Amino acid sequence: MRRAATHPSGENTKLTVYGMKSSGNCYKVELLLEQLGRPYRWVEVDSAAGQTRTAQFLAMNPNGKVPLLEVDPDHRLAESNAILCYLAEGSPLLPQDAWQRAQVLQWLFFEQYSHEPYVAVARFICRWLPADHPRRAELPRLRERGAQALAVMEQQLARQPFLAGSGYSIADIALFAYTHAAADGGFDLSAYPQIDAWLERVRAQPGFVAQQV
Fold first, then answer.
1. pTM, entire model
2. Torsional class of 4: left (φ above 0), alpha (ψ -120 to 50), beta (otherwise)
3. Which of 1, 11, 33, 205 is most open to solvent, judged by the fewest CB atoms within 10 Å of its CB?
4. Contact 2, 90 (CB under 8 A)
5. What is the pLDDT of residues 139-180, one digit of tens each?
6. Residue 190: which residues within 8 A CB-CB, separation 6 or more?
């Protein structure tokens, strides 16, 4: 029997998420909460306008970033993938079996170290920085490294329908967040048919919501 999820203030607590809708890291949390059917309140925080650097926000998260999950005033959690693990505890989206759980965690670490720093940063530069911004010089390297990460995903998805062996999980949610928008950063997803099919499988999951940008 799968054990119930445990939360400091109870399973039915209405959570508060401080996030920015255009951020893939924030979208991960929104998507998971919708798929879990958990009640929550969304507080839009525009990090591009400096709203994560105010004294009030820094008192909640000294790292000055979103997303930030507030369970109650004494329990706040930062870092998107840590939030996913916390919220998914006790659900099929985070397996209890040690080996299966480790496979999910493997892809969460991959997302933050080998995928997000290239795919998400290329998207940011292309969408939000002017055409003459000096950071556009970074794009060739970002696209090269991002393509390497996408190739790893393509290879894995040629073997199984979802990234971790246990089926649809928070590993898929984490990597969907920026992969589905990779074209914004200049990545041609038509070169990755297995990823393209996987994106559709994720969109077909119960409770799926599209990102609002």
1. 0.93
2. beta
3. 1
4. yes
5. 999 999 999 999 999 999 999 999 998 799 999 999 999 999
6. 196
Torsional sign, CA 189, 193, 198, 204? positive
| CATH of region 15-88 | 3.40.30.10
Q: Domain residue spans in the chain?
A: 15-88, 98-203
Calpha distance 86→100 (Å, rounded): 16
Contact yes or no for 14/41 (Cβ under 8 A): yes
Whether the CB-CB separation of 37 and 46 falls below 8 Å is answered with: no
Cβ-in-10-Å burial (0-12, 13-18, 19+) of 76 comes to middle
pLDDT at 213: 76
Residue type, 188: D
The CATH class given to the 98-203 domain equals mainly alpha
Distance CA 118, CA 157 (A): 20
